[in-house]
Structure formats: structure tokens, C-alpha cells
Amino acid sequence: MPTLGCIADDYTGAADLANNLTRQGFRTTLILGLPSHSQVALDEVDAVVIALKSRTVSAPQAVHQSLAALRYLQELSCRRFYFKYCSTFDSTAHGNIGPVTDALVKALNAHGTILCPAFPDGGRTVYRGHLFVHDALLSESGMQHHPLTPMRDPNLVRVLQAQTPSRVGLLSYHHLQQGPTATREQLHALQSTGHQLVLCDTLDNDHLRTLALATRDDILITGGSGLALGLPAPAGDTSLTTSQLPRARGAQVVLAGSASRATHAQIEHARAFLPTLKLDAFELTSAYDRALQQVVQWARPYLGVTPILIYASGTPEEIHTVQEQLGREHSGALIEGALAQLAVRLTELGARQLIIAGGETSGAVTQALGVQVLRIGPEVSPGVPWTYSPKRALHLVLKSGNFGPVDLFTAAWELIA
Ligand SMILES: Nc1ncnc2c1ncn2[C@@H]1O[C@H](COP(=O)(O)OP(=O)(O)OP(=O)(O)O)[C@@H](O)[C@H]1O
Ligand SMILES: O=C(O)[C@@H](O)C(=O)CO
User: Fold this and answer.
1) pTM for the complete prediction?
2) Which long-range contacts (CB under 8 A, 24 or more apart) does 158-161 make?
3) Domains and CATH numbers, the chain
């Protein structure tokens, strides 16, 4: 039975965490959405990751979903819990990282917890409480233009403090550099002065290991997926940890709803190699069914012949125009819904290998496809694994918006061929 229970606030983030846990030696099952008990067999598993779509819903809804996931994991006999959010701390104005963390602390009767968004392998580090994406501050990394969770302040202590009545402290890299004992002492010192939530600096994977050791008796830890790379591997036979996925067959489709900088670059690169079609939000509003039908007609001759790319992402200016006229939530849901419908129709026509870019988009697409349990396969790049749905016989990549190399949409297929 699993001992580590994880709650992720979006689908790509959940795949990212499941990937890092798998690489770290945990036999990990990824569950999309909250299942009913009978649906999933979890005997030979060390960790379970539940993917929620709770990042951009209201704070009370996010808390409600997260507590339901916690209860499910407790009933599975999990003894430690990991709340996973984005390595760029993606939040709305009201949360949801603060409210969900507070609710989990309370439900678990914990004294408090750490917050460690960093993922150095993916270029995310935290220095003096400020988040960097490679060499850029968060607020200059492209994330300031995110369609749903624009991040305009790189100071995460300030960002988090605005989301919670709990007092937020900072664990500085100085303490991490002195090792697990000094780190643990500093965490206790911060907690004893009323800092329930402690945002952690992290410059490299050594800091992640130190932090994981310093908090190994804590019932709750929170962070990006990076922290998983610091966790000690569970004892026992881990030879089956990275499951060998079946060989992939069937048509190859990329569906990109992410408007993040890395996805933009991947789209630009793929346009030179793949048949590519851009969805138009205004056309979808005025004639939804006809617009989707046209996309399917366009795609049909390519299926099984070459991978294709269908995307929605526009420049920040284009997105601004769409959002001004159609509303932020409506336009996001419209495009997610269209990509989800296209996934359904294209799989009916033989698509079996899908790369889906964007967390919200991945949530919408996998829900429409009825995918619930995923096995983790080969890693395409840090945070981006191939996964496999045994029930639907589908190979899927759920790609986080800002992850992956520029040639991901053209090169990833080779890993499962
Ligand atoms: N041209 C556009 N105009 C308006 N909204 C768009 C446009 N293109 C995409 N969107 C919306 O932007 C949102 C992108 O969020 P999504 O979580 O899918 O990507 P992401 O944030 O880049 O990925 P991740 O969460 O993995 O980092 C979706 O709701 C999508 O529908
Ligand atoms: O942590 C990350 O950056 C990703 O796993 C993610 O959550 C993207 O939505």
C-alpha cells in the first residue's frame, strides 16, 4: 500500500511530480481526478499522486477538492502528504496555494509546513525568497503575461503572505548550506516565533536533499516537483519503478492550449516540420461546431502519416484582445473545451499518441477522453514523462507550459517508437 500521498493542483504538475518520484525510486501511480475506491488497484505502490484541476478555481473550491483528496489518501493508509503546486508558484489573486496549504496543515494537525517551489533541474531556483526562471526573475520570465495566473511579483514571501492569514517566514540558503541539522533548527526557530508557513530558498539539488532530510518527520511537505528529488528512496524492490510502456502505435497529435513562453518556442519550431493549424477563439465563439468540423477535415489526411499540431496560443497582445472581448474565464474554457473535443474526435479516427501542452488544457482533454490512471514511462525532459493509459490504450505527454526543449513536439515520439 502507498505511504506517500500527493495532491497536485493541476494535471501537468501531477505528471511532473509522478515523474520525479518515479526517477527517485518510488513506485508511483498517477490518478487524474478523485477516483472512487474500487476503481484503482494500489497494492504494489509506494506513492499515489492525485491530479486536481484546482489551481484557478475559487479558493473555497480548491480547499474543498484538496481536503477530499486528502481523505481519500488517508483512507488508502498514506502516512505522509505532499501538496504539489507550480514551480513558478502560479496563483490567482486569492490563492490557491495559501488557502490550500493552511487547510491541509489544519486537517493534519501539523505545526506548520515548508513551501519549496524550486526545481533546479528545470531552471527554477529561489534566492532570498525571489523566484528565478533560469536567469530571469519570475516577473520578467514571461509568466507576467500568463492568461490565467499572471505572476508579476517575484518575491514569494510577499505573494504567499497576501494569500494567507498565517505568518510566512523565509528559510535562507545560508541555513541550507549548513546541512540538515542546522536547517531543522532554523525551521523550529521560525515556527516558535509564529511563522507557520516557511518559504524556502533553494539554489540546487543539494539544498533539496537537505530540506527533505530536515523535514523527514513532517507529516506534510509542499512544493514543486523538485523536492521529490530530495526524498530518500523507499526500501524494497524498485526494479519495476520505471514501468516499461507498450510500444506506441497509431496517429500522433499535438494539442497545445498553453500560451507559455516555452510552448511558443516549441510551436514555432514544429511549424517548420509538421502540418500545423491555429484555432481562432472568435471563430469558435461564432460557429463552434462548424469550426471543429473543419479542423477534423483538415487533420484527417495526415493521421497516421505524420504528426500534426493544433494550437491556440497567441501573443500576449492577441490573448489580451480575446480576453477583453470574450472574458478571461470564458475564452480559456472555450479553447480548452475545443481542444478536448478535438482530442475525442481524433482518437475516434485513430490517434493514439498525444502530446498535450498546458495544465488546464491537459485537465480538459484527459477528462473528455475518460483517462483516469496513468503509468509513468520514459522521461522526455525534466518534468515531462511519457505516460500510458492502459484503459484507453493511449500514450500521453501532459506537458507543463514552460517545460521542455524547443524540439519536443517533433522529437518526443522516438522515445516510445
Ligand atoms: N489565444 C488564446 N486566447 C485566450 N486564451 C487562451 C489562448 N490560448 C490559450 N488560452 C488559454 O490559456 C490557458 C493556458 O493554460 P494552461 O494551463 O493550459 O497552459 P500553461 O499555463 O501554459 O501550462 P501549465 O499550467 O502546465 O504551466 C488555457 O485556459 C487556454 O485555453
Ligand atoms: O511545477 C511546474 O512548473 C509544473 O509541474 C506545473 O505545475 C505546470 O503547471
Assistant:
1) 0.94
2) 158/129, 159/89, 159/91, 160/89, 160/97, 160/98, 160/115, 160/197, 160/199
3) 4-230 (3.40.50.10840), 251-416 (3.40.980.20)
